[in-house]
Design a protein that fits this description.
Blueprint (H helix, E strand, L loop, with lengths): L2 E3 L4 E5 L5 H10 L1 H5 L11 H16 L5 E6 L2 E12 L4 E8 L8 H16 L4 E7 L3 H9 L3 E12 L2 E11 H5 L2
Parallel strand pairs: 5-6
Antiparallel strand pairs: 1-2, 2-3, 3-4, 4-5, 6-8, 7-8
């Protein structure tokens, strides 16, 4: 099982059933904040909904098709990060993440993202990592920009988010670029 200690404060752990209540509580505390950017929030109403999500993540892990990790900061679950899927034919993946509002501005997500990019390139042997962010989500966009990803363009009105369309900025980094940093 994937587990990575980033430093004394931050740890990544593959999501498991023992994390259901903690993840649900984190979503509940941040529900209105997360709904600004994420389409799945209203679909999480019970512990069972979180359990289904974790089951899918574990199946992805077993099938070598990506996974999601909880991010723990000073012993508390702060957010989630993971690979949406892995395209082995093209040696690429995309990273998705979210963090509770109370944990922002601690550099947590940048450090967690760096670990997943490193792992994708150095351990999984992938050539390309992509991150897509809502055009207006400047906090999220800051992460790939700070990590040296290239802005590869805008997918106009690419996601229906409850009652409106959202455009996404596509960021990408290639193995050669990452290894030079």
């Amino acid at each position: 099982m994937f587990k990575y200690v980033i430093d004394g404060d931050i740890e990544l752990k593959l999501l498991d059933n023992c994390h259901i209540e903690e993840q649900f509580a984190l979503i509940q505390r941040n529900r209105s904040y997360l709904k600004q950017w994420l389409p799945w929030v209203d679909g999480i109403k019970t512990f069972g909904d979180v359990a289904k999500s974790i089951k899918i993540s574990k199946e992805q892990y077993v099938g070598n098709d990506g996974f999601r990790c909880g991010i723990w900061y000073k012993g508390r679950m702060a957010g989630i990060i993971g690979y949406h899927n892995i395209d082995w034919s093209n040696k690429s993946t995309s990273i998705g993440y979210w963090i509770g509002e109370e944990f922002q501005k601690n550099g947590i997500m940048i450090r967690a993202c760096k670990v997943l990019v490193d792992y994708a390139i150095k351990e999984l042997g992938l050539n390309r990592v992509e991150i897509r962010c809502a055009e207006e989500n400047f906090k999220s966009r800051h992460i790939p920009e700070k990590l040296g990803f290239k802005n590869e363009g805008t997918l106009r009105e690419s996601e229906w988010l409850y009652d409106h369309y959202v455009s996404h900025i596509v960021y990408g980094i290639l193995k050669d670029e990452w290894m030079k940093m």
